[in-house]
Amino acid sequence: MGSLGHRALLQYIDNNDISGLRAILDTRHLTIDDRDENATTVLMVVAGRGLTAFVREFLARGADVQAEDLDNWTALLCASRNGHLDVVQLLLDHGAEVEHRDMGGWTSLMWAAYRGHTELVRLLLDKGADGNAHGNYHLGALLWAAGRGYKDIVELLVQRGAKVNVGDKYGTTALVWACRRGNVEIVDTLLKAGANVDTAGMYSWTPLLVAAAGGHTDCVSSILEKKPNVNALDKDGMTALCIASREGFQDIAASLIAAGAYINIQDRGADTPLIHAVKAGHRTVVEALLKKHADVDIQGKDRKTAIYTAVEKGHTPIVKLLLATNPDLESATKDGDTPLLRAVRNRNLEIVHLLLDRKAKVTASDKRGDTCLHIAMRARSKTIVEALLRNPKHSQLLYRANKAGETPYNIDSLHQKTILGQVFGARRLNTNEDSEGMLGYELYSSALADVLSEPTLTTPITVGLYAKWGSGKSFLLNKLRDEMNNFARQWAEPPIRTSGLLFIVCLHVALLIGTIVGLSTWSAVVGVSAAVGFLLLAYLLLAAVRYCNYQMDMQWAYSVQHGLEKRMTRLRLILQVAFCHPPGPQSDSQAKPVRFHFAEANSASPTGDGAVAHMLAALLDAIESHYGWLATRLYRAFRPKCLKVDVGWRWRRMCCIPIVLIFELALVTVVTGISLTVAYFTFADEKEKEHILVALYVIAAVMGTLICTHLHVLAKVFVSLFTSHIRVLKRAVRSSESAPLTMLGAEVAVMTDMVKCLDAFTNQQIRLVGVIDALDSCDTERILTLLNAVQTLLSSPNRPFVLLISVDPHVIAKAAEANSRRLFTEGGIGGHDFLRNLVHLPVYLLITTLRECERLPRKQQRQQQQPGALEAPSNVPMIKDVTDALMQPPRESLSRKNSVSHMEKQVTLEEQMICGTLQTLNEEAYEDVASSERPSPTELDTPSAGAAMTTPLLGASGSVPAPSGRESILKQQGSVKADKRVSIQQMATSNNNNNNSTKLTPNVEYVSERQPEVQGAGKRLTTKPPPGPRPASLIITRNDSNSQFQLLRSSSVDYDDVEAQEHRTTIRTTLLEQQEEEESAPFVFTVRK
């Protein structure tokens, strides 16, 4: 509290009672400079409040103008701070000091500039105030005025000589503060006064940086006129372009790009302007940067590229822009993520489709080994899974395991409603230009490999690739083999815990080393120390290798650890074969990895048995290479079998004692015997030798007992280790040359059991693929011998065989029928039935059909340009394309037992006559003609031949086909048998529709293949045959001249159905072809109205 006089004066000041104040000052002798507790005088109070009359009164009564309070404040400072111009004028007139500073170093001019009192600043400058004075942090009046946007004050200070390039404590100049404020007029004023545009202040700010960060386009334009350093960096390493791109200021970014700013410069986080623009989603800035050829493949923070950032943020329009620049879609982040992996994680289907269309690799995986399918399966996203699997080649990724041993197939199978069950069958095949260029080879191979790689596929299975000779079947087999290997390669080896086995191995090695060291030094302490030291050293080295592999990601450490695990896995398999029973097939419900081993059998082998033997030898060699020669040969000696189908592996026992314990006992006994022998001949005295000798006798007895009880097994092991599988196979073939299939069957059974046993131990499944190719060029006997041997040996149930047979089905059918004609004829079985019984999965290659479709437009064009083309009657509608024929409404066809459906195709009248005549020939001639390309009327050799065909068929109703015409047709196709005759019988009909008295007789004639024995040579069977189907028969019906002919091809015809359908008129000429499954049956050709 102040004195009483000071409080009395403040009371009058508060009440604004000037007269009262004068009265009290006149009547009482109060001290005019009386102070309160802060040493503040009443003059300071009235000056700060702007009470000009009170200030004048106090000054008239002699108040001290230079009086200071405890903070060094004077009346002038108080008046200047609050902008009271009149009070400041009075104080200056009474001698107040203009340059007086408060405790913060601020002068009156600085307070006036800070508060924006323009006239007060002008007054102070006129009174000689220093415009360059600065206070705390070296801040002056110009800095405050520029930073707070007081244009007039800045102009006054600049006019009075204030230094524009003087900065504060951190070097921040007035221009920087003005640009940060965004006042372009102040910026222009400072620039005209010569301000430096490249001065860096606090946080390495330059005028251009702060103007760009604030989005002040005009300020940026003004600064750019002075040619600043547009690539100056702030404390974060960001340029003005980076900041503008991050904030989305398109105009500023365009100005900076035009001024020469670096497009691909990276900040301290390695992000570029493009990455900043993409991250914030500023599409216009991205477009501007891409037009200036910004590098889209630069990796930013965490090794993320621009396309990855766009995918991560979900900016689909920006993703489309970036994809147009062909970015690197396989660049991975520090976590191993690619743009496609991130899109799948975000479940953004549109971006996934965009990336797949740009050929992003679906096979990419992150650090954990997860592929896109792993992520999509965990997210249960059916649409994304379907998009990823639209190319059948990518189905192999379903069986690719991550580092935890999880496959997409297993992840999906854990759920009750699987995604794969919904996707397969409804997915779209990727018919891109690559597949079309390959004529569908890649589609065939990928689809077949997908089927054959299915973990739940039941074997054995025989796949038949059917196509004509020269259609590229061998090329397709090679591609199928590569695809199957690719599918199998995607299965990573399931993680096997080898830590326990590794400890046991290290322990055994440590015991051996301890024994050797202990015996050499004759000290048990030294031996135990050596064993423990080796064990600790081994585990320290293993820990170092593991650290370098997982933490430092060193390649040599990965190679060492992977090689060690691989050898431990081999050792584990050897020990399992020797000491364990394999687990049952139903002990584990998880899908197991699939592996394929291939062997080829072709026409090079002399016989079918020899070809199968070569195939088995190749398969045995592949199995031995895969599992190791020691494990496979030990199998022949021990032959371990599973105890139950639903239990895991079990120890093999002898007298209820696990064999592994017996082995360990024998090992310990041997080591002990060696140790005692060494001790007997080196360190022992006479008394100790007697005790050692007794112990040696006991050890010898134990070892002798073990050897005698296992002598048979040891002999088999010795023989198996020094005899390869191929030598055993050759020995079996040579020992039974009279019946090689018997011995080969025994070897196949052993190989099957061995594969199943080793698969059970290694938790995988091996499929043995036999490839049979180049049979089209073999003779019939060799073909059938090979196929019969394969079917006998490899087609037994539950055997892991996959047979790929690449043949022309007609060649095999003809070979089967030629070698067993009587059986096939009497039993009603055709060659196609034999092939259907052999092949489980027939695949008909449509490659020749694709080629014919490509040739069809050119063929039609040649027909239109041919001047001598035959003309059909005007009332006969001609079908110009197969597609048009298929689009016609279906008609009821002749019934074949249970109404077989047929396919309609265009056929000419000449083809009807040829096919009908050829039915009377033998089976071989028919098959040759049916497999060849049918001639068209425009392809006749001579016009006379065409006339010979059109005259009997398109002439008047009374014309009957002459025998010479039929003979000419037959001569074009091959030799004609004299005893096979064909004729068309003309039946009496009436052309007048009004004459109902004429009875329409069925004009159906049956001509048998066999010559009747009862009738004479010149007499034919014209009666109606018995009801029911008849093989290899010809039925021809025709009426008047306007009748149209139709050819029906079927395996058998019920003649009652033929007569019942004669009244149906046809307006088209079509060929009804039998379905593929009926090609083995006999045929009936019918020409009817």
Automatic annotation (TrEMBL):
Secretion signal span: none
Keyword terms, alphabetized: ANK repeat, Membrane, Transmembrane, Transmembrane helix
Annotated spans, Disordered: 858-877, 925-980, 1010-1030
SUPFAM superfamilies, alphabetized: Ankyrin repeat
Ranges of residues in domain KAP NTPase: 441-866
Membrane-spanning parts: 499-519, 525-545, 659-683, 695-722
Keyword Calcium: no
Coiled-coil segments on the chain, per record: none
Pfam families per record: Ank_2, Ank_4, KAP_NTPase
UniProt ANK repeat ranges: 71-103, 104-136, 137-169, 170-202, 203-235, 236-268, 269-301, 302-334, 335-367
Gene3D superfamilies (alphabetical): Ankyrin repeat-containing domain
Protein name: SD10882p
Native species: Drosophila melanogaster (Fruit fly)
